[in-house]
Design a protein that fits this description.
- It is a single chain.
- By secondary structure, the chain is α+β, with helices and mostly antiparallel strands.
- The chain has four helices and three strands.
- The longest helix has 34 residues.
- The protein starts with 13 loop residues before the first helix and ends with a helix.
- 19% of the residues are buried.
- The model has no long low-confidence stretch (mean pLDDT 78).
């Protein structure tokens, strides 16, 4: 998380793109990442992976919903091409995590309101 702190949503990089647009990104290799975001900021954690890494990033906000500012990110230690079933699983897990995050934020708002009213 520290590597992402302060990364602007308009940064030319995969993670801000997913959070901003809600479009999942399946990056099969480091070469694919560089080809798609040639001026993109590499997240510090990615530098620790071998050169053959792959990444799957899915927004925690279902299409059409307001962005939550978070994403489900999975890294692979070698080049990887996701199957349709694997992409469906990632999407489902991201949707469930997004629903849980929404519930947590809603509960925090309720507690804050209750505390203010008391």
């Amino acid at each position: 998380m520290a590597a992402l702190h302060g990364l602007p949503l308009d940064a030319p990089s995969a993670l801000p793109h997913v959070i901003r647009t809600g479009e999942p990104q399946l990056i099969a290799s480091q070469e694919d990442y560089i080809r798609r975001w040639p001026h993109g900021a590499m997240v510090l954690y990615f530098d620790q992976l071998d050169s053959g890494f792959a990444i799957s990033i899915t927004s925690l906000s279902p299409s059409g919903d307001q962005p939550l500012g978070a994403a489900w990110l999975v890294t692979y230690d070698s080049e990887h091409h996701s199957s349709p079933d694997e992409r469906a699983l990632m999407s489902t897990l991201a949707d469930l995590a997004g629903q849980a995050l929404r519930r947590v934020r809603l509960q925090e708002a309720r507690v804050e309101l209750a505390t203010a009213l008391q």
